[in-house]
Write a structure and sequence with these properties.
102 residues, mainly alpha, elongated, disordered N terminus
Length: 102
């Protein structure tokens, strides 16, 4: 492999891991965890790291598997945290709306 191919493989691995994390994310679940869990929901979302399915790591070198796993976890945690924050903001606005209406 020449240098351009070696640098291309990690970029593909990283990109593929982020795409897989995006498609695997349970966005509605994390929204409702933020909506009903408030700050605790955000803390859980920022700490919990889902692992990619083992089948996606088959046939990869140990370096590629580690890069894929790290990228997958980071992207998943970011999505979870963002969605739970959106849920918390929605809960805040629903509370204000409820106070205004009653």
């Amino acid at each position: 492999m020449d240098n351009s191919q070696q640098s291309h493989v990690p970029a593909n691995t990283h990109l593929r891991a982020e795409q897989d994390a995006e498609s695997d994310a349970k966005k509605f679940r994390w929204f409702f965890i933020g909506l009903f869990g408030h700050i605790a929901g955000i803390l859980i979302a920022s700490i919990y790291e889902p692992t990619p399915p083992a089948s996606r790591l088959l046939g990869k070198s140990s370096e590629d598997a580690a890069l894929y796993t790290d990228s997958y976890k980071a992207k998943s945690r970011g999505i979870q945290t963002r969605q739970s924050i959106i849920g918390l903001v929605a809960a805040f606005f629903l509370g204000i709306l409820s106070a205004i209406i009653t």
